[in-house]
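Quick question, first post here. What does this chain look like in 3D?
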Amino acid sequence: MSTITELTETTLLRFATAGSVDDGKSTLVGRLLHDSKSVLTDQLEAVQRVSADRGQDAPDLALLTDGLRAEREQGITIDVAYRYFATPRRRFILADTPGHVQYTRNMVTGASTAELTVILVDARNGVVEQTRRHAAIAALLRVPHVVLAVNKMDLVEYQETVFAAIAEEFTAYASELGVPEITAIPISALAGDNVVEPSANMDWYGGPTFLEHLESVPVAHDLSHCHARLPVQYVIRPQSAELPDYRGYAGQIAAGSFRVGDPVTVLPSGNTTKISGIDLLGKPVRTAWTTQSVTVLLEDDIDVSRGDLIVPSKDAPATTQDIEATVCHVADAPLTVGHRVLLKHGTRTVKAIVKDIPSRLTLDDLSLHPHPGQLVANDIGRVKIRTAEPLPVDSYADSRRTGSFILIDPADGTTLTAGMVGESFAAPEPVKDASDEDGWDF
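> Answer (accepted):
Ran it through. Tokens below.
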């Protein structure tokens, strides 16, 4: 298993791009795809035609990712654009996210599963508020690697002092947020400097090109040491002549690994049993691990349904109805104290109430504004939530998959907030409120 785990983890990198409007994210992605020979001939011809129709002498490489008509008309990125490409050294899943403040929610989506986030900065403008917001989200989502791509160096005459000042300011800010690794690279996406090929215009820079860093950044994780978690998505009960007694519990393993014979606990009920079999792609296997979609069979006929969580008995998370978390509010309507919501955790959705909003993060100086009363779109803050039913939650620091949740508007199904359980850089001082236990009906 170790060989397969190592292969899977070291040959695939999920990364996201972020930055302010017109910093050149889509152009960078287009340049990366073009110069790494990852663009099909018909795609490039289509871009050349559209660019020529606009009167442009050279193909606008941003069009390789800005696929929506509204994006092309306005020259901006609106939705997350996913691209899949490969080099001889690694395979990539790329999420190109919007730069507008009102689309920050899409950056949360794109970076939530990323192992590396690229934050672009226009060398002429330096670090701006949206840069700080994206750095805060990357830290909040605990993305292991952050690349600061200082773009448009050609417009500042490739000056080393400009790059150094921006890199120093961003690194100091991101380090305060707890970002574990920051790599700064000076580039010109339009001209191709330091994207795939080293730049002759910046001989003062001795680091890797953008692609070299993507190909070499370590992303290996020892999955065998993760907390094993299997959210049950579907109960399989054929009741056919061939399989009269078959009862399997299907889902995608969120973390860790499971083996036949392992003692397991089903949460939130707390019932215990052992794994009697694991089916993968219709065939029995002895072991299964993270991201594999499997069907687990149990020795005992216990009550298991969609939304339950199967975990090792010796490593079971506590169940609770009181959740404290750091959140990024993504809806246009504000999140307020007393707000009744649906909380979706894994495959389970329960009713919940926002009991308190202890603080909101101020991005300029990373101070905490106490008890703001509400969070508006793109705000980052702390919340206390009471759920109608116990939930088995991990700390987000321990598991990005089972330590996260979303809040949903029960009226129309709108996603309101993305949440990360436990402490973070935005953790406020403990707040005691005598009314915490009053007036709640569950």
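The CA atoms of residues 394 and 402 lie 6 Å apart.
The longest strand covers residues 348-361.
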